[in-house]
Design goal:
6 helices, seven-stranded mixed sheet, about 160 residues, alpha+beta
Length: about 160
């Protein structure tokens, strides 16, 4: 069942991209005690993700901080090395934390997956954004297939 506003994120191990390489972290510890704007993209280097989704959060990072957001994080069903390269190529290293969900464990745990097999992508995470406060989802914006509106940085900021 898809996670809902008011529910705690399930405990899952994901991989944080760091300057020293991949670091396994658990969602319980990562989201504890702070406010995180998390957005999910179907894949690094894909068209909408690279042209709109990531740049929107980069451009609005200061506005998120002004609204009390402690961190902006991006997750994708990619490995940490791909997300690290994508972060570097977009100048996001110091602004957005990349959380690799290489086996789609997190996407499956929150039940926000889609089958991208017809595009040669296999199981992927849906495009969405969520605000997580102390591990609890307080805002959830899930896109319909092929859409990019409600998961944008602009939409999320308007809702804060």
């Amino acid at each position: 069942m898809t996670i809902k506003v008011g529910e705690k994120l399930p405990p899952v191990t994901i991989t944080k991209v760091t300057e020293h390489g991949p670091e396994a972290i658990d969602t319980t510890s990562y989201f504890a005690g702070r406010k995180v704007a998390l957005f999910s993209v179907p894949g690094a280097f894909t068209p909408t993700c690279s042209a709109k989704h990531l740049p929107g959060f980069l451009d609005k990072a200061e506005a998120f901080k002004a609204k009390g957001v402690d961190e902006i994080a991006c997750t994708a069903v990619n490995d940490a090395f791909v997300l690290g390269a994508w972060s570097k190529s977009n100048g996001a290293d110091d602004t957005i934390t990349m959380l690799a969900d290489g086996n789609a464990d997190f996407a499956k745990a929150v039940d926000l997956v889609f089958d991208g097999s017809k595009f040669g992508m296999g199981t992927r995470g849906q495009r969405y954004s969520m605000l997580v406060e102390d591990g609890v989802v307080t805002q959830l914006n899930i896109e319909g297939p092929g859409e990019f509106r409600v998961s944008s940085a602009e939409h999320m900021l308007e809702s804060l």
